[in-house]
Amino acid sequence: MTRIHFTAASTEQAQDARERLVALYGDSGPEAAEVVVALGGDGLMLETIHRMIDRELPVYGMNCGSVGFLMNDFAEADLPARIARAQSNDIHPLRMHAVTSTGAVEEALAFNEVSLLRQLRQAAKIRISIDGRVRLAELICDGVLVSTPAGSTAYNLSAHGPIVPLTANLLPLTPISAFRPRRWRGALLPSNSEILFEILESEKRPVAAVADFTEVRRVISVAASEDRSVCARILSDPDRALSERIIREQFTV
After folding, report:
1. Contact between 188 and 171 (Cβ < 8 Å)
2. Regarding beta strands 59-63 and 35-40, do their DSSP bridges make them parallel or antiparallel, or are they unpaired?
């Protein structure tokens, strides 16, 4: 029997599912577990990955939420066998290094995206440099984001950014409601790129930076790059392989 630790969203549906599964398979707790089963939606999956990253435990999600793009279908029967057959997907996060107007430095990991968002009514002005070279001297916008391949189907896609396969070694850089230059649609960057966002007129046009669940307000600069020293393992059923779902999403009309 695989040693399983169950975690669930706060919804009644997810909590009821956890009670039934614990009654069937027991719960080893996070310290003794070989795998974590997350019951909920994509938000719960991201929270679980962040909580378990230091333990290097694989996470197998079952959808008890609404979207569940990262999740497998929910079923109570034969769970250890399903986990044994599951495909492993290694996901590397972005590391955000943010400096605020007070000089404070904040770091956080993002398995979906690092996004910069205007805080007030006025548009943000942002300079974008890649690997030490200024590529866009001034972007006037509601915001801008850089996403991982796994996160390219989330906020990035909603902002009309490109979907990127897991094995593409690319990072989508996508503007959010760009005003100038109006026709700039973003870029696809090598996964080893060092991306720097500098906030122009930061006192007049304050900007917040968000890495998954971590928000830092009134930033003056934000650096983002892939951190390959950190790895999360997401397990997916063979008929719901994460790489296949990302490919298929590109043909959804």
Report:
1. yes
2. parallel
Q: Which long-range contacts (CB under 8 A, 24 or more apart) does 19-28 make?
A: 20/76, 21/76, 21/79, 24/76, 24/79, 25/1, 25/79, 25/80, 26/1, 28/3, 28/4
* Residue carrying structure tokens 């399983």: 4
Task: Note the pTM of the prediction, 2 decimals.
Answer: 0.91
Whether 237 sits among the annotated catalytic residues: the reply is: no
CA distance 113 to 124: 18
Q: Is 188 labeled as ligand-binding?
A: no
User: Does the annotation place 155 within a ligand binding site?
Assistant: yes
- Length of the chain equals 253
Each residue's pLDDT tens digit, 20-47: 999 999 999 999 999 999 999 999 999 9
Of 42, 78, 227, 239, the active-site residue reads 42
User: The CATH number of 92-224 is which of 2.60.200.30, 3.20.20.240, 3.40.50.720, 3.30.870.10?
Assistant: 2.60.200.30
Annotated ligand binding at 81? The verdict is no
88 carries a ligand binding annotation:
no
Fold of the domain built from segment(s) 2-89+230-248? Rossmann fold (3.40.50)
